[in-house]
Design brief:
By secondary structure, the protein is of the alpha/beta class. A hairpin with a 2-residue loop joins strand 17 and strand 18. Helix 1 runs parallel beside helix 5.
């Protein structure tokens, strides 16, 4: 049996994940006068997709944009993050995002590094700009310090594996301490639980280098933990059928394409999009946001590769771009470019489209950040009906933290989460992984899942027969993993639990892709090649009830 701490941990609000959303949730919850604990897989000072920085924050600032928020709402809807959001959540986000900007600026994250609010990149010519340029290289350290200042208890190296639900409401969680070589189970009693573990990477083979599992654009340890825990707890997942693909430098997967001040160009240096013909710091080149598959399309058609061409960028703008890439956290890439003598003024940089992952597809929340399971909240990248990346994580993390604290203050005492029937079931499963002295490890399971997803729930071809075959094979793989996967220490157990969460995501993708009988965006059904206008404002949700999936349609709110 795996070792288990017999004394439960207790807190009013449990925040699962110490990224941007988790830290902001914890800070606001603590400000309401409740006890708060963050359970983080790594270390809050340097974890998640915002670990080493960001440099764009979507927001509406009246003194810059004017008193009418409608044009900014319109720009959001047409941006790279606006396609799968409930309008009501977008409006609430835009109303509050500037308050979070001011908080960050006062805490020591430079939100106006040039001395003023400056909106740069991700922009159409002649239209309002909605992405505030900031210097976020220190954001995780600053937010961790703010949480500690308020007395938030931070438990690093203690990922949460499952949410405990009794009588239809969240009452706590099962965590696994991985501080030592031998893992230890921790049961946490809580009045409210906030899931904020980030996106879901490692679901498909890494496009830049299929043999390297961790060469991904987003944090490779963000593996759908919130999605998986919410799905098992009975919450709705929404928009799971729509793949999301980012783009950036080829082979070295790094986000931040809007930080580059150049033009997306063909091999002859000719712009491939209609928006800009020469580099502009204020706009960037929004071609890759609008034409999401441009880099893949140019390769498939034989016209490629497509490049980021900065040869016409002024010296001042090149230096500004290099500062921005550092703020974005791309220091490893900059070091490599310096070592290899890559000069963006002389060399076009080939870009590519990365593998699908889940960001802005996942847990369905209401205006307060709560799921359909009372007491269970979510914020940040794992939310499926709202997305604004770093700004969304900060703002809806704050909202969810306040809502969870309010519920804790108005609720009854802590329940005995350790007595939940789920504890024995899940702890028994973890123990069987550790008990086996032979069997496939998490890497084999992860690679097998990636291959299955690529071939049967991929981005090029989906159909009834292909998806049904993939769902059948998925069932076989899941059964084999549960029966044979082995772990021999804390680290490999943690990775094994990541694979289980990715499998929950995979099942939801298969089920919803089968149900959506049309082609829309990158959900391409060859047996339904048209886009059905009757489904334009319809969201598809899936949840588990007594272990069986329930699929429902609803209107965009």
């Amino acid at each position: 049996m795996i070792r288990m701490d017999k004394k439960p941990l207790e807190t009013d609000v449990l925040v699962v994940g110490g990224g941007i959303a988790g830290l902001m949730a914890a800070i606001n919850a603590a400000d309401q006068g409740v006890s708060v604990m963050i359970a983080e897989k790594a270390n809050t000072k340097r974890s998640g997709s915002g670990a080493t920085g960001n440099d764009h924050f979507c927001c509406y600032i009246p003194e810059i944009h004017g008193d009418d928020v409608a044009p900014i709402f319109h720009e959001y809807k047409n941006s790279l993050v606006g396609g799968y959001a409930d309008d009501s959540l977008v409006r609430k986000f835009l109303e509050q995002a500037f308050d979070r900007v001011k908080d960050w600026d006062s805490w020591g994250i430079s939100m106006r590094p040039t001395g003023k609010w400056e909106f740069i990149g991700h922009a159409f010519p002649g239209r309002p700009r909605i992405w505030l340029k900031y210097a976020g290289h220190n954001q995780k350290a600053v937010l961790t310090a703010q949480a500690k200042k308020r007395g938030v208890r931070i438990e690093n190296h203690m990922p949460v594996a499952d949410v405990l639900v009794e009588d239809g409401k969240a009452i706590g969680a099962i965590a696994v301490s991985v501080r030592k070589n031998e893992p230890e189970i921790k049961i946490i009693r809580a009045k409210s639980v906030i899931l904020a573990t980030g996106s879901a990477s490692r679901l498909y083979p890494p496009a830049p280098s299929p043999g390297m599992l961790f060469n991904t654009a987003f944090c490779p340890s963000c593996t759908g933990a919130a999605h998986g825990a919410a799905f098992r707890a009975g919450a709705n997942l929404v928009n799971m059928e729509f793949p999301n693909r980012h783009a950036g430098p080829k082979f070295m997967a790094r986000c931040g394409k809007a930080t580059w001040i150049g033009v997306v160009a063909d091999p002859h240096g000719k712009p491939v999009g209609p928006f800009v013909s020469k580099p502009t710091k204020e706009l960037g080149d929004i071609t890759a946001d609008v034409w999401n598959t441009v880099f893949t399309d140019y390769m498939d058609s034989g016209r490629g590769p497509a490049y980021m061409d900065c040869s016409g960028t002024s010296e001042d703008d090149v230096q500004y771009m290099m500062w921005g890439l550092k703020s974005e956290g791309n220091t490893a890439m900059l070091d490599y470019m310096k070592k290899e003598g890559i000069d963006v003024r002389k060399h076009m940089v080939e870009f590519m489209q990365y593998e699908p992952h889940l960001i802005g597809r996942g847990i369905e929340i209401d205006l307060d950040g709560e799921t359909r399971v009372p007491g269970l909240f979510a914020a940040g990248d794992p939310v499926g009906n709202f997305r604004a990346d770093i700004a969304g994580a900060a703002t809806y993390g704050w909202i969810a933290g306040g809502s969870a604290a309010k519920r804790a203050l108005n609720g009854k005492g802590l329940e005995k989460a350790e007595q939940s029937s789920m504890v024995e079931e899940r702890v028994g499963l973890y123990g069987r992984f550790m008990k086996r002295d032979r069997g496939p490890d998490w890497r084999e399971a992860n690679v097998a899942l990636q291959q299955l997803m690529k071939d049967y729930a991929g981005i090029q071809v989906r159909s009834e027969t292909i998806l049904q075959a993939g769902l059948k094979y998925f069932g076989n793989l899941k059964g084999k993993v549960l029966e044979t996967m082995a772990a021999d220490n804390s680290h490999t157990l943690m990775r094994s639990l990541e694979v289980l969460d990715l499998m929950e995501c995979a099942e939801a993708i298969f089920l919803t892709a089968l149900e959506r009988k049309e082609t829309r965006a990158q959900h391409r059904r060859t047996d339904f090649p048209f886009t059905n206008p009757l489904l334009a404002d319809k969201f598809l949700t899936v949840r588990k009830e007594k272990g069986s999936p329930v699929i429902e349609w609803r209107n965009r709110a």
